[in-house]
């Protein structure tokens, strides 16, 4: 008998994880996780090193199967859907993806090739529509003038922006960003936070999930937060309810005090 499809009230759910666990070599990387993301939500996932953030993102990117529980992405259940049909509908940036891009690749090729799910040049197959879209995205990220540079000659911050443009190339319904501000200097971080904030506030932008270690990197416009520790959710929900001194202290196992300035957060040890 075929499995029933998702009820219609779940249509707006871009991600739905129920009772999810990921186990490797006898360790629980994630356990008992219930989490969902709606179309118009922008989530930050925060937690210390080893908390399971990247594992969670890889589940949401259809790169991993759960060991326990169920993962539904864009209305399809992982394990029942062809992940190669699903992946172009999900934009994903991470350090691991950046490492796979050859240094001599032209910036515009890095972006446009996302539409063909390849790394490397494939120029003969690109059409003008794709090249125009890549140029437009590079413009949105403020790096249109770097289209003809090679990826290897860019600064860390410029590379992060190219990767975000690449992850938007297929017009995804879900955008996953794994520590996009890691390794950036203060100016680079602030610039990226501002660009992500613009994207978060754009009603046409996809649902977004941003993984970070730092509350300072939460872009204004992000609506929800999930705090992870040792593979478990400490708390998840609306940003203002979740990002508190108490919850951060529990998550990072330190006595932390949170400060707010406008729409930005800052944290330090008490
Ligand atoms: N294949 C594996 N076998 C055993 N343990 C693993 C495996 N892959 C990851 N882990 C462990 O699972 C835990 C969660 O890893 P994950 O990369 O999801 O954490 P993270 O929150 O993203 O960490 P970080 O902030 O340091 O990037 C880590 O302790 C990691 O060492």
From TrEMBL:
It holds the Pfam family ABC_tran. Coiled coil: none annotated. Gene3D superfamilies: P-loop containing nucleotide triphosphate hydrolases. InterPro entries: AAA+_ATPase (IPR003593), ABC_transporter-like_ATP-bd (IPR003439), Metal_Ion_Import_ABC (IPR050153), P-loop_NTPase (IPR027417). Keywords: ATP-binding, Nucleotide-binding, Transport. One of its GO terms (molecular function) is ATP binding. Residues 15-255 form the ABC transporter domain. This is ABC transporter ATP-binding protein. It comes from Amycolatopsis rhabdoformis.
